[in-house]
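**Discrete fold encoding**
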Amino acid sequence: MKTYLPKVDDNQQKWHVVDADGAVLGRLAVQVADVLRGKNKPIFTPHMDTGDFVVVINADKVVLTGKKEEAKMFMSYSGWKGGEKYTSVAQVREKYADRLITHAVKGMVPKNRLGKQMLTKLKVYTGDKHPHAAQQPAKLEIKPRS
């Protein structure tokens, strides 16, 4: 079986808007990553960027299950001795709420140039307003837990 190669004209990139209010972070990130990669389209090809643009609003109202709000820590390292810094989810949410969703989606796209290109199509905003109204984004429903 041969790999399907979509033509340039076949890939019409659309815009989607997702409301993260009350959505579980991991489940939201999986579905956003699938749309960014283009896995929801019949022309999906693993080595090409066939995905759409995704705008996530209300990123500060995303929900984490269990005790992750207090127990989960993000680590950053400066490269120097003793340069490790740990930040809890509550601290990240307070300062940079959009990074929670960006970090989760980043872990679910390919770890190469193609993945970096896909992440440029992700736009995350903490409020319910976004500057992409001119693109007429369609509402993307997040599937609830079944």
